[in-house]
Amino acid sequence: MIKPKRLKLGDTIGVVAPGSPTTQEKVEEAYNKLVEMGFKVIMGESCYSKYGYLAGIDKLRAEDLNNMFRNKEVNGIICLRGGYGTQRILDLLDYNLIKNNPKVFVGYSDITALHIAINQLSNLVTFHGPMAASDLIGDISEFSMDSLYNSILYEEFNPSIKNPSEELITINGGVAEGQLIGGNLSLIASTIGTPYEIDTKGKILFIEEIGEEPYRIDRMLTQLRLSNKLQEAEGIILGNFNNCIPEDPDMSLTLEEVIDNLIRPLNKPTLFNLQAGHCEPVITIPLGVKVRLDANRKQLTILEKPTL
After folding, report:
1. pLDDT reported for residue 184
2. Radius of gyration from C-alpha coordinates of the chain
3. I need a labelling partner for 304 at 20 to 30 A (CA). Which of 50, 135, 159, 215 fits?
4. CA angle at 132 for the pair 131 and 137, rounded to the nearest 5°
5. What rounded mean pLDDT belongs to the chain?
6. What distance in Å separates the CA atoms of residue 39 and residue 140, rounded to the nearest whole number?
């Protein structure tokens, strides 16, 4: 895998909106926050665009991302927010351009589709972490900022990934090593049957989700099971499942029961409740690097520094 250069204070960060739009006020707040953090900032055209539930038409959003990788002045890229829309631009991106101009790329949620495509087609390490308008301008904690900086800024990288306070839960014991991949469950499932289908063979699969009832989690995990994606993984990390509760508890399985039905029978090393995803505090995790999952000791260790 290709590793991007770590960022330094004073570097230029490009901001793009590959999915949904946000308000002008939040765009300005995001710009000011990144400047306050010590970076120069270039806001992409998509940050100011709106086409229904999209931050501009597909061509505009795709070219915005391509141009940020192309621009020699830009040292790293952070997404404005997620929402919906990144799948629509996967076939409009220049993956050779991205491969030949490796840069820090940060986002989560809908950005999962881009992580998967860029990891697999550009062989570039990317970062599942907070976004400019969704997280950085809010009440982001010192823990979350330290975790982000640990991955993309600090010269000395701490390889131990630990929850801020909540305890990790062992679903299946055992130890596994492999490349860390994944992200949002809805986006992972939606790649199946496309040229951008996630490859889980021999890898550690990370999954998180928000606002989906247990039966929908069941459906998406079942899709991954029927396509052998769960079986082919070496190990599984279940992140934060924010507000994934049934509307009618009397007519539903719980999230824990769904996991017990579909994940436990795989007998693969599996940890649950890693605070990565739609949560605060939030852990930033590098995708595309080799990790060691020790479900017996409830430990996740990054085995290689994600930046140069």
Report:
1. 98
2. 18
3. 135
4. 115
5. 98
6. 18
Give the residue carrying structure tokens 């824990």.
Answer: 256
Q: Give the ranges where 126-213 is alpha helix by DSSP (H).
A: 142-152, 185-190
Active site residues: 109, 208, 278
Q: What would the two tokens of residue 210 be?
A: 């928000």
Other Cβ atoms less than 10 A from the Cβ of 96: the count is 10
* DSSP β-ladder status, 270-272 and 169-172: antiparallel
Lookup: tokens for 146: 């330290």
Residue owning tokens 């989560």: 108
| CB-side neighbour CA atoms (13 Å) of 185 | 29
Q: Give CA torsion, residues 136, 107, 210, 18, to 10 deg.
A: 110
Q: Name every residue whose Cβ is closer than 8 Å to that of residue 122 and which is 6 or more positions away in sequence.
A: 2, 95, 96, 98, 99, 102
β-strands 299-302, 160-161: how paired? antiparallel
pLDDT tens for 2-20 read 999 999 999 999 999 999 9
The contacts of residue 75 (CB under 8 Å, 6+ apart) are 5, 7, 8, 11, 12, 13, 103, 104
User: CB–CB of 153/306 below 8 Å?
Assistant: no
Tokens representing residue 104 in the block = 């820090």
Which structural domains are found in the chain, ordered by start?
A: 12-138 (3.40.50.10740), 160-302 (3.50.30.60)
Instruction: Give residue 294's identity as a one-letter amino acid code.
Output: D
What one-character-per-residue DSSP string does 114-145 give?
Answer: HHHHHHHHS-B-EEE---IIIIITS---HHHH
Question: What is the rounded distance in angstroms from the CA atom of residue 301 to the CA atom of residue 271?
Answer: 13
Question: For 267-293, how does the pLDDT look when each residue is reduced to its tens digit (9 = 90+)?
Answer: 999 999 999 999 999 999 999 999 999
Query: What pairs with residue 41 in β-bridges?
Result: 13
